[in-house]
Every structure is written in C-alpha cells, then in structure tokens.
Amino acid sequence: MKANREVKRLFVGGLGQNISRADLQNQFSRFGEVSDVEIITRKDDKGNPQKAFAYINIRVTEADLNKCMSVLNKTKWKGGTLQIQLAKESFLHRMVIQRTSQHTSSLVLTATQRRHQLGSKATQERSQ
C-alpha cells in the first residue's frame, strides 16, 4: 500500500544570501516532489540584502515530511542555519477560501429557497 502524499507548504528561514532556487529544489527533493520554490530577500533601509527566506511547495508523505524537518532543521547550509516549519496560510489564500465558501453557501441557499418556492407554488395550485 502506498503512503498518502499531500502538498505541503514549508517556510524555510535562515538562508544564506547566495541561495538559489535550484539549491533548494535539490536539497528538498530528497524528501518529496518539489513543485514550487519562492525565495524572498528582505533589504535594509539602504537596499542591502539583510535576510533571506523561502516558501517551498512539496508533495510528501507525513513520514517523509517529519524526516525532512528532523534532518534539515537547525543545520548549517550554504552560509545560513536552516529554520524549517509548516508555512502559515497567507491572508490572500484565506480570503479566497472564505469567499469560495460564502459563494457556495449562497448558491446552496438560493437553490433550497427556489425548491421551497416551487413546492409552495405547486401546493397552492393543487389546492385550487
């Protein structure tokens, strides 16, 4: 039986300044299928790179995710000390989910109301 693989979004902090997408792809693909790597570099007031972190989407089993975190978290790699955790859901992603949920609820409510109206109308016609 094959283990269930799900897409997880990881936050990877403490990256060195010269890290590349290919570096992260290679490092994390040992544990699962990496589908996206987004590197973000924060700059100081003078525009100098100060802090680098990344978000990685990886299709992975729960066991391989735990292995990835235990093997890589707090290790020194390419000029930084990795800090790995599950990423928090972004505000924009939460808004999309909330709007989709509200839209679906309103469609269900509208359909239910319509069925109720049709049922009431049919009842009235039969009683006449």
Automatic annotation (TrEMBL):
<comment type="function">
    <text>Plays an essential role in the survival of diffuse-type gastric cancer cells. Acts as a nucleolar anchoring protein for DDX47. May be involved in regulation of gene expression at the post-transcriptional level or in ribosome biogenesis in cancer cells.</text>
</comment>
<feature type="domain" description="RRM">
    <location>
        <begin position="8"/>
        <end position="89"/>
    </location>
</feature>
<dbReference type="InterPro" id="IPR000504">
    <property type="entry name" value="RRM_dom"/>
</dbReference>
<dbReference type="GO" id="GO:0003723">
    <property type="term" value="F:RNA binding"/>
</dbReference>
<dbReference type="GO" id="GO:0005730">
    <property type="term" value="C:nucleolus"/>
</dbReference>
<dbReference type="InterPro" id="IPR035979">
    <property type="entry name" value="RBD_domain_sf"/>
</dbReference>
<keyword id="KW-0694">RNA-binding</keyword>
<dbReference type="InterPro" id="IPR012677">
    <property type="entry name" value="Nucleotide-bd_a/b_plait_sf"/>
</dbReference>
<dbReference type="Pfam" id="PF00076">
    <property type="entry name" value="RRM_1"/>
</dbReference>
<keyword id="KW-0539">Nucleus</keyword>
<protein>
    <recommendedName>
        <fullName>Nucleolar protein 8</fullName>
    </recommendedName>
</protein>
<dbReference type="InterPro" id="IPR034138">
    <property type="entry name" value="NOP8_RRM"/>
</dbReference>
<feature type="region of interest" description="Disordered">
    <location>
        <begin position="108"/>
        <end position="128"/>
    </location>
</feature>
<dbReference type="GO" id="GO:1902570">
    <property type="term" value="P:protein localization to nucleolus"/>
</dbReference>
<keyword id="KW-0597">Phosphoprotein</keyword>
<comment type="subunit">
    <text>Interacts with the GTP form of RRAGA, RRAGC and RRAGD. Interacts with NIP7. Interacts with DDX18; the interaction is RNA-dependent. Interacts with DDX47; the interaction is RNA-dependent.</text>
</comment>
